[in-house]
C-alpha cells in the first residue's frame, strides 16, 4: 500500500515511523514532513493548508490511505474533499470535527447528553464576558471557542487577569477568529489524563492512555503550550476509571452524535480531569495527540495500518490491539522562548549519538535539512521517547539521550512524568 501522512510535526513523524513497520506498507509520503520523516519516507513539498493540491497528489499517485495529522485541516474539511474524490482517508469529516473545532459545540453536546464537564458560560460579546468576570468565582478558565494550536486556554486567578484574557481573545484577537466567541468555565482540580480511542460510528477501541504536561516550565508553571512531554500509560488510570469513562462519556457521546446525524470515524481523544468525585471532560480532540502519540506508538506492538483501515471501513471490534507493558516517557526539546517568540535556523548536534542509546526513539517536529545539516525550524523541535521497566528507568534513558543533543537556546522540562505535588 501507498500511504500519505499529512503534517510536519512530531506526531506525524511518529505515525510515519509506526506505519513504515507494517508489512503492507510499500511506500510512505509525508506532506510536508520534516527532517525525521525524510529519513523514513519521502517528503512532499505541499503545505498542509493546500487541500486541493493534497487531494490531487493522492489521486495522481494512487495513494491507498491518507492519514490526517493536524486539527486545522480536519476542521477545514479535508476528509470531505478526499472522500468526494473517492480517496480513502483516516479522520473525521468536517461536521464531526466540530467536537474539537468548536468548544461551544462540544459543551452544548455534553450538556444535552449529560456528560460530566466543567460548568461554563458562553459569550459572543466582550462586554458581557467582562461583566461576568466581575461576578464569577475565581479562579476561572477562559477558552477561545476555535482552534488555537493548544494555546487558547488561560487560567485566571484574579479578576484583572480574567478581564485581560477576555480582551486579548475577543478584542485584540490574539488567536484570530478562534477567539470571536469564548467560554468561561470553572477551574477543575485534580489530575489530567489523555485517553485515545479509535472510533467507527458507535464502535470504539481504546488505545493506551497518556498524561501530558502542558505548561512550559517545571512544576507546571509558565504559559500553556502544545505539550512539553508525556508519559504512557497514565499513572492516574485504572480499570474502574475506564468503566466510568465508557459508561458516562464515550457511550453517551457517540449516541448523541448519531442522533445528530454525525458519523465519527477516526481518532478521538478526550482530555480528562480526574477529580475526587468523577471524571470530567476538559476538551475533545479529533486526531492523534501531540506529544501523546510519541509516547503511545512506541508501546504499540500491533500493526497500526489495519487498525486505521478497520476504523474507516468497519470491523474495528475484530482487530487485535496489543501494547508493550513497559513505560514510555517523552520529553520535548523546544526553541528558547517557546511558546512565545523564538528563533529558528539553529544547527542540531548529537542526534546520532542519542539515537544509538538503548530503547530510545527520536521524533522530529520543528526540523529541516539544510546543506546536509539538521536545523531547527519551529517551536517544538524534537520529542525524545524512551522505554523502561519503570517510570524512573524510562526517565533516566530519556534524559540521558537529551544530554547528547545540543542546539542554541534548547529548552525542556526536567520533571516530565513526575507527579505534580498537589495530585
Task: Give your account of this protein's structure.
The strands form five sheets. The chain has an eight-stranded antiparallel sheet with strand order 16-15-10-11-14-17-21-18, with helices on both faces. The chain has 423 residues and is an alpha+beta fold. Helix 1 (10-19) links the parallel strand 1 (2-7) and strand 2. Helix content is 29%, strand content 27%. The protein has helices spanning 10-19, 51-60, 71-75, 78-84, 98-101, 103-113, 126-133, 159-171, 239-259, 292-296, 304-313, 351-355, 391-402, and strands spanning 2-7, 27-32, 42-43, 65-68, 89-90, 120-123, 140-144, 153-156, 182-186, 191-200, 203-212, 215-217, 221-224, 229-232, 265-274, 279-285, 327-334, 360-364, 367-370, 373-376, 380-388. The protein has four domains: 2-93, 3-Layer(aba) Sandwich (Rossmann fold), CATH 3.40.50; 125-180, ATP-grasp fold, A domain (Dna Ligase, domain 1); 191-318, ATP-grasp fold, B domain (D-amino Acid Aminotransferase, Chain A, domain 1, 2-Layer Sandwich), CATH 3.30.470.20; 327-402, Phosphoribosylglycinamide synthetase, C-terminal domain (Glycinamide Ribonucleotide Synthetase, Chain A, domain 4, Alpha-Beta Complex). Helix 6 crosses helix 9 (239-259). The model has no long low-confidence stretch (mean pLDDT 95). It is globular.
Amino acid at each position: 500500500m501507498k500511504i500519505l501522512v499529512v503534517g510536519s510535526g512530531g506526531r506525524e513523524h511518529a505515525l510515519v515511523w509506526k506505519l513504515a513497520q507494517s508489512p503492507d506498507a510499500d511506500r510512505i509520503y509525508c506532506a510536508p514532513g520534516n527532517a525525521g520523516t525524510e529519513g523514513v519516507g519521502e517528503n512532499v513539498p505541499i503545505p498542509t493548508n493546500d487541500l486541493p493540491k493534497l487531494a490531487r497528489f493522492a489521486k495522481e499517485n494512487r495513494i491507498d490511505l491518507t492519514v490526517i495529522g493536524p486539527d486545522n485541516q480536519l476542521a477545514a474539511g479535508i476528509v470531505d474533499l478526499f472522500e468526494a474524490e473517492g480517496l480513502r482517508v483516516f479522520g473525521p469529516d468536517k461536521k464531526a470535527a466540530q467536537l474539537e473545532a468548536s468548544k461551544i459545540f462540544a459543551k452544548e453536546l455534553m450538556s444535552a447528553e449529560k456528560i460530566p464537564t466543567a460548568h461554563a458560560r458562553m459569550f459572543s460579546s466582550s462586554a458581557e464576558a467582562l461583566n461576568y468576570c466581575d461576578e464569577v468565582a475565581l479562579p476561572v478558565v477562559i477558552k477561545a471557542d476555535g482552534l488555537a494550536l493548544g494555546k487558547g486556554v488561560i487560567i485566571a486567578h484574579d479578576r484583572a487577569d480574567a478581564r485581560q484574557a477576555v480582551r486579548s481573545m475577543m478584542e485584540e484577537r490574539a488567536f484570530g477568529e478562534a477567539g470571536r466567541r469564548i467560554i468561561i468555565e470553572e477551574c477543575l482540580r485534580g489530575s489530567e489524563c489523555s485517553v485515545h480511542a479509535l472510533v467507527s460510528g458507535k464502535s470504539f477501541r481504546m488505545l493506551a492512555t497518556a498524561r501530558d504536561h502542558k505548561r512550559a516550565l517545571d512544576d507546571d508553571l509558565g504559559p500553556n503550550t502544545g505539550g512539553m512531554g508525556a508519559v504512557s500509560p497514565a499513572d492516574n488510570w485504572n480499570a474502574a476509571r475506564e468503566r466510568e469513562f465508557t459508561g458516562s462519556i464515550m457511550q453517551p457521546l457517540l449516541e448523541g452524535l448519531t442522533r445528530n446525524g454525525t458519523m465519527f470515524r477516526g481518532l478521538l481523544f478526550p482530555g480528562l480531569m480526574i477529580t475526587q468525585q468523577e471524571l470530567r471532560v476538559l476538551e475533545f480532540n479529533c486526531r492523534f495527540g501531540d506529544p501523546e502519540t510519541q509516547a503511545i506508538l512506541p508501546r504499540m506492538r500491533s500493526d497500526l495500518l489495519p487498525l486505521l483501515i478497520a476504523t474507516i471501513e468497519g470491523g474495528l471490534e475484530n482487530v487485535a490491539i496489543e501494547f508493550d507493558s513497559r513505560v514510555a516517557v517523552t520529553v520535548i526539546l523546544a526553541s528558547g522562548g517557546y511558546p512565545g517568540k523564538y528563533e529558528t535556523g539553529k544547527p542540531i548536534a548529537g542526534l546520532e549519538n542519542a539515537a544509538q542509546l538503548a530503547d530510545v526513539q527520536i521524533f522530529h517536529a520543528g526540523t529541516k535539512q539544510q546543506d546536509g545539516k539538521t536545523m531547527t525550524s519551529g517551536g517544538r523541535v524534537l520529542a525524545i521517547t524512551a522505554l523502561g521497566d519503570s517510570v524512573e528507568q524510562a526517565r533516566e534513558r530519556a534524559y540521558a539521550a537529551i544530554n547528547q543533543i545540543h542546539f542554541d537556546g534548547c529548552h525542556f522540562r526536567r520533571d516530565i512524568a513526575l507527579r505534580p505535588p498537589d495530585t
